[in-house]
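Sequence in, structure out. Go.
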Amino acid sequence: MSRVGTSLPVGLTQTSYSSSDADDSNSSGISWGAVIAGAFVAAALSLALLALGTGIGMSSVSPWANSGASSANVGAGAIVWFVLMQLIAFSIGGYLAGRLRTKWVNVHTHEVYFRDTAHGFLVWAVGTVLTAAFLTSAAAAMLGGAAKVGASAAEVSATTSSQGVGQNGYFVDTLLRSNNAGIATTTASSTTTSAPSAVPAPDNASARSEVGAILANALRQGNIPGADKTYLAQMIAARTGISEPEAERRIDDTFTQAQQAADTARKAIAHSMYWMFLALLVGAFFASLFATIGGDQRDHVPVI
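Output:
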């Protein structure tokens, strides 16, 4: 609306304004263009920092013993880098969203602060979804050699799983390992070759599959059923040439090791998820914080 016919003091001019200038209730409180732009910037920076962190990590490790960083140091460094990656990428993305959003007029400063915070949070949400959904293949392509190694490992894992062994292949091999290598020994004084009295090693494909299934079921239940343990002891004794009591002791020792390995893997995954959750929270917080900083600077830009 406009005021007409109102007498003003000398020296003041009359200002006309429309209802759209005085009321922003019908305009959107979200500048989606700024949010999407900030999210793409954050996702791209996350990918770049991921490549940098991967290069640093690969250069710090060594295949030789007592050389390079230890696995504990590499794990701690990876956690710290992931937190920094979230902080840097989403701080910049949130700041850009705050600077690029439209300027709201006749809106209370508290509402402006809330909207800027919401813009930063939306940048974090959209950027995280973009990173998880669309940049996985790009990250694998950038890692190159690591991707090939992963493919080879997956191929070996699929072959092993087809035999019913899966991730417990090492423990299955431990159970079926013979005490006698079956290697012929040659004495220096005679050309006669004598082999230890060991049972010939047959094709263990079906046996490995069966032992792997029994071991996996025992790990799920938390113990080895008596019937399964007796059957395993008889099978191991027949194939390795050891006595059944010794086979049972081997089963107990191997099962304990498998349980410890499974528990260690479970704890490692749980701890990594905790740290990932913390890193994502850090990204959300700094995206929201820097969006308010960028929005405040946006509102104080003088009109030329």
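Check: Residues 1-22, 149-165, 182-201 have pLDDT under 50 and may be disordered. The longest helix spans residues 244-299.
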